[in-house]
């Protein structure tokens, strides 16, 4: 249940297996934590297992895109700058990722919006901007009337099946995956599971490209501090006419999911705009769009993820899941079809650990 990117990828992977599926979603598909017009696909992670999973996701995005008739991830590459990239590069190359050190001139060719930068930089050739809106629309289209507009109130195991009570129906299924974003941990509590998820909020701004759209526009991760921030990420929208920029920081929520200081979101937005003025002269510094969204992180890492299971009900949780969704969805689909859950997804394996 849940028609964000993880729920949709899980459902599509089940359809590929010939398994009947139903997806519950009370809002607009892809409008929760999956919302926004572009996300980064990058292979760089501290955990080699996550690098391998990302490679699988990249291949699935290509295969599914070919089947559905669209480019799901751009071919423009992913650029990372800052001292940390030199430590991550050998790990990427050992994992078989096509990544290498680039100098200032090549950096300017694949990332033409960036101010002059002469420090360490790495290009991940198979990285790129995920075409989020098109991906959601195509997966929703593949589901057809299997997508149900309704809110799920409870899930529980009953006599070897899983009962799902929604606003208008009560149904039973062989197995269920709860892919409800911030609502996943709430539903997990109804079956006695306490997911160690920390809620927070995030802001991402989109800026117009000055002049003609560049033919190539790689995504960007900036941990350098050269331009006043050490945790910046950015991705292009289709056509490379706009660029979405955000800081990696989030404002942490209280246990009741309220924000202690709502002004923190305004501060994050202001810092992102100031960064654009300093670092990305190829952008008009006045944002043309803003995206506020919830994030859910696990204690073992910013990219940490895991799946909790209880009597045929699976509860995936984590952060930055767009780049992991096809691989995660395929592994969840296997478990829903009756296979053993992939061992990397067990919470005790701490997948994505820093």
UniProtKB/TrEMBL annotation:
Keywords: FAD, Flavoprotein, Oxidoreductase. The keyword Ribosomal protein does not apply. It is an enzyme of class 1 (oxidoreductase). Its cofactor is FAD. It comes from the Bacteria. Its EC number is 1.-.-.-. The keyword Metal-binding does not apply. Pfam families: DAO. Residues 2-334 form the FAD dependent oxidoreductase domain. GO terms for molecular function: oxidoreductase activity. InterPro entries: FAD-dep_OxRdtase, FAD/NAD-bd_sf, MTOX. This is FAD-binding oxidoreductase. It comes from Pseudokineococcus basanitobsidens.
